[in-house]
Amino acid sequence: MPEQLVLCSARGCRERAIVALRWRNPALHGAARTKQWVACPGHEQQLADFLDRRGFLLERASLSDEGAG
Ligand SMILES: [Zn+2]
What is the pTM for the complete model shown? Predict the structure, then answer.
């Protein structure tokens, strides 16, 4: 069986995601709530910058670490 393939969250992108970006918009989400985007290498920085500029970015985690869950 093929391994689970996670696709990049960037609009129109069909590359395989290698990183998860966890974020929260304090204006919309309570403290217990987090959202997650996943990104390919080409979009990781773009998406992280987008979130970081707004102060939303909480955590950046690699998806390649098997079982790190
Ligand atoms: Zn992408």
Answer: 0.81
